[in-house]
Design brief:
This protein has about 180 residues and is mainly α. It has one domain: Up-down Bundle (Four Helix Bundle (Hemerythrin (Met), subunit A)), CATH 1.20.120. About 85% of the residues lie in helices and about 0% in strands. The protein has six helices and no strands. Helix 2 runs antiparallel to helix 5. The two termini are about 35 Å apart. The structure holds fe (ii) ion (FE2). Fe (ii) ion (FE2) binds next to helix 1, helix 2 and helix 4.
Length: about 180
């Protein structure tokens, strides 16, 4: 397996851990407990910024190389990009409802839980699709030279697109969150 795909799979695994934490928090909330706003805000920081800065740029580069190697995959590229857009849309709804609840507006717990779960379900579905279709197709279509180009860009500290430093910071933040969740 390419190192790049291994990194993307690890990103997915780390996002899944946070989704599981969120699910526990929602169940707690629906059982009548107050929301842990700080925990949700910190998870939201991760779910908003990590994919945008560190994960999607890598996937976009793979998709572009796939389109060069196999133009028939162009519609596929558009599908994945549309799914990333939909994720952002659902995350924005989650953030809006959460901010309303936090500011003291009367929000029915089931409404907030529904908005958070819509985003989570779509993200899980999307990651599953990438893992079962996109990544295997990339491994089949791309040559070693393509992976070398992608890795070189990912490792270039001066590259304005790849958030190498952000990746390190979010890795640390993830560890803090997991330690927190285990307490
Ligand atoms: Fe992904």
């Amino acid at each position: 397996m390419s190192q790049v795909i291994a990194k993307l799979l690890e990103d997915h695994r780390r996002m899944t851990v946070l989704l599981d934490m969120l699910e526990r928090e929602i169940s707690h909330y629906l059982a009548g407990f107050a929301l842990n706003h700080f925990l949700i805000e910190t998870i939201l920081d991760y779910l908003t910024n990590f994919p945008r800065k560190c994960h999607h740029p890598v996937e976009n580069l793979i998709l572009r190389r796939m389109t060069i190697r196999s133009p028939a995959h162009a519609p596929y590229l558009r599908e994945i990009i549309a799914e990333h857009e939909r994720l952002k849309y659902l995350l924005d709804i989650f953030i809006t409802t959460f901010e309303q609840e936090k500011s003291g507006q009367v929000i029915r717990p089931y409404r907030l839980a529904k908005d958070i779960r819509s985003y989570m379900e779509y993200l899980r579905w999307h990651m599953e699709r990438e893992e079962s279709l996109f990544f295997p197709a990339a491994e089949k279509i791309l040559f070693q030279s393509d992976w070398d180009i992608i890795e070189t860009r990912m490792n270039d500290k001066g590259d304005p697109i790849f958030g190498r430093e952000a990746d390190r910071q979010y890795r640390a933040l993830h560890k803090v969150l997991v330690d927190w969740g285990e307490k």
